[in-house]
Design brief:
single chain; flat; two-stranded antiparallel ribbon; 300 residues; 2 domains; mainly alpha
């Protein structure tokens, strides 16, 4: 990376806005965790059934809980969408010992969340305005699986749209702190820890990596599962975050959308290795395996 490079004013202003927004988003997450602790204190297990306790269904049930008049069955009926299929579980989850101080604290926490939601919405509007000069790149980055609009805005604010400041994708990854250390002596690897880098960018890419691993039939999710099996989940997430950043580098540089390689990319790239791995797995399960080439029919 060229050390003397100073990001343009527009990028610096956008970066300041996205970092403040991220702070408020984190504050909201902290408040949600506090709500879960209050519910646990009252022996309410809503979080074990609803993935988002402050979603539409969760807010409706929390409001009824604070009001203190509805029965567990009545609160379960307030659920929406897929959560309605879990009404029996919700009834059991809402059977707790909710006291007056629990209701007071829950009400205050929800008020703070509402205030933060309004603040975040205003930041979204400002950031959208400041992103207009970079809109083309933001939309291109949004084509990457796991990278939503908000993440794309953060990436642009942190690395900009001029990739000439980085000598290569590897230099960008090193600057971001997502390149493994290259500490070797006499051919012996001493350390593989990643360096400290851009924290805001690292958090955004990490979140994108966690999002993409749950997607089906994508190159990035296939990469994660391939690495997690022998390197562990944490290292696999870092590797996927690194791949996303490298993809960002080339998308910005070439101004081209993401092109999906598919979830079977690694199998197709080295079919012999894939067959060997699957054979070994079957043998470990107690099977004797022999392979024969598939017969190819030739049309005349």
């Amino acid at each position: 990376m060229k050390a003397s490079f100073i990001p343009p004013v527009g990028q610096r202003e956008l970066r300041e806005l996205t970092r403040y927004r991220s702070t408020f988003v984190q504050e909201k997450a902290t408040l949600v965790n506090r709500i879960q602790k209050v519910l646990e204190s009252a022996n309410i297990k809503l979080a074990s059934v609803a993935s988002n306790v402050v979603g539409v269904s969760g807010r409706a049930m929390l409001a009824a809980l604070i009001e203190g008049q509805a029965t567990p069955a009545e609160m379960a009926e307030l659920s929406k969408g897929r959560l309605r299929d879990k009404r029996e579980q919700l009834v059991k989850a809402m059977e707790g010992q909710v006291k007056a101080h629990h209701r007071f604290v829950l009400a205050e926490l929800l008020c703070q969340i509402d205030s933060l939601d309004e603040t975040i919405a205003r930041f979204d509007e400002q950031i959208e305005d400041y992103c207009r000069p970079f809109e083309e790149i933001v939309e291109l980055l949004d084509t990457i699986p796991g990278v939503a609009r908000q993440t794309a805005e953060i990436i642009v604010s942190e690395i900009g749209v001029d990739m000439s400041r980085f000598e290569s994708a590897h230099h960008l990854a090193a600057w971001a702190g997502l390149a493994p250390g290259n500490n070797e002596s006499a051919g012996k690897r001493l350390s593989g820890k990643k360096r400290h880098g851009n924290k805001a960018l690292g958090v955004a890419l990490n979140q994108a990596a966690h999002a993409v691993v749950h997607m089906k039939n994508t190159y990035l999710s296939a990469q994660y599962h391939r690495l997690a099996s022998h390197r562990g989940q944490k290292k696999a997430i870092v590797a996927v975050a690194h791949s996303i950043l490298v993809i960002c580098y080339y998308i910005i540089k070439r101004k081209e959308p993401y092109r999906e390689l598919g979830g079977d990319y690694f199998d197709k790239r080295r079919p012999e290795a894939t067959a060997k791995r699957l054979m070994k797995r079957l043998e470990q399960l107690g099977f004797n395996v022999t392979l024969e080439p598939a017969s190819v029919s030739v049309a005349v």
